[in-house]
Amino acid sequence: MYDAEVKTKKKKKPRGKRILKGIGIFFLVIVLLIALVAGGVTVTNAVTVKSERNFAKSLAPVAYTAQLEPSLDDNGFYTFVTDGDFKVMQLTDIHIGAGFMSNKVDTMALNAVAAMITAEQPDLVCVSGDIAFPIPYQAGTINNKTAATIFADMMEQLGVYWAPVFGNHDTESFSYYSREEIGELYESDKYPHCLFQAGDPDVHGVGNYVINVKTSAGEITQSIFMIDSNDYVDTSLASTINWVYDCIHEDQIEWYEKTLYALAEDNGGNIPKSIAFFHIPLAEMKDAWTEYCSNNFEDTENVQYVYGKAGESEAVIYCSNLNNGFFDKVLELGSTQGIFNGHDHLNNFSLYYKGVRMTYGYSIDYLAYKGISTIGSQRGCTIITLHPDGSFDCTPENYYQDKYQGVNAKESVTMQEQENHIPE
């Protein structure tokens, strides 16, 4: 009896080992659950992406009567030739999530873009950032290349020439793909209608490039500068969470100046007129708006209001706290007459500041701001007409006009009365 009891006791595992085994099983179950969830999300996202790509490919090409086609000049710049007006459409903050959580609003965004392009038939579409919105808790994915691909597929299907710059959300620090990798996608032979150029790798940003409009006699009537305003001041999580935005860097300003002088050499010694597109507004946009507000919303010596509202709250203009002097260089060289940005979705105003027209483009966003899919005063495009004499006109176009008819019916929205906000 004694020997049997001893033998039985020897067979029992130490209590510590039993606990470790239990912990191991628990973590194994957790890992399996995570794998199952991840697998389910992957499958669901694949279905979502397929449906969005199918929608993009179902669109009819734009029925241009006489579409202008660009060619590469000797300097490597894409150039359009016309003796008439040149029509540019600015789109901004498309915010395609391309995940299972954003499928419905993604399709709304694609539908809106296609409807406006089809109706307006622009010579060129300039997209001033944030095509992608790979925020996992809103989109259900961190794959930013998928959104870029879906949008590029749609633009190619429409057969419209387009030129994007990057915004802060296009290549978030936690996203799968970098600016360089998305830039390679845009430059690939798959998308001949995309005029994106990565630019000098030794200059900050990806996508600093120029598109020219010339007369048949070879005179540049307008140079269109596409500039990467970068994203956050560093790659830290704190910088992203706290919206510590970057700006145009000094070497980019040097590139801008050198490019203008190089263009002048091929333009009879004359620096051409130009406009510029980038995502994050300049600090001078905030200076201008603050001065206008401080003068009881009346024009000042420096500021002449044109149209629109500042619908964002708190800071109102979410620019960088840094300023490397791009606007000062614009004033010094006297070439750039118009600056167009996005970034602040509820701002859609346009004004002159020290003689330079600065404009927020109408946004597309259905996803990033809470409840924004149900309101519509801020949604649309901006039409910029470049004239042969170097001047331009700029008008905002709301999406919910009758002239814009998409493949899908437009969603019902409230046309909210936007209020002008003063920076705190």
By secondary-structure content and strand pairing, the structural class works out as alpha/beta
Low-confidence stretches: 1-10, 31-40
Q: Helix content range of the residues, please?
A: 25-40%
Largest sheet geometry: 9 strands, mixed
- H/E order of the elements? HHEEEHEHHEHEEHHEHEHEEEEE
Distance between the termini: 86 Å
What is the rounded Rg?
26 Å
How many helices? The count is 10
Query: What general form does the structure show?
Result: globular
Number of strands: 14
**Mean pLDDT score, rounded?**
91
Instruction: List the strand order in the largest sheet.
Output: 1-2-6-7-8-10-12-11-9
Which percent band covers the strand fraction? 15-25%
Your description of this structure?
The chain has 424 residues and is α/β, with parallel strands linked by helices. Helix content is 33%, strand content 17%.
How are the elements arranged and paired?
Elements: H1 2-11, H2 15-58, E1 71-72, E2 78-81, E3 86-91, H3 103-120, E4 124-128, H4 136-139, H5 144-158, E5 162-165, H6 179-187, E6 209-214, E7 220-226, H7 237-241, H8 250-265, E8 274-277, H9 283-294, E9 303-307, H10 326-333, E10 336-341, E11 350-353, E12 356-360, E13 380-386, E14 392-398
Parallel strand pairs: 2-6, 3-4, 4-5, 7-8, 8-10, 10-12
Antiparallel strand pairs: 1-2, 3-13, 6-7, 9-11, 11-12, 13-14
Helix pairs in contact: 2-3, 2-5, 3-5, 5-6
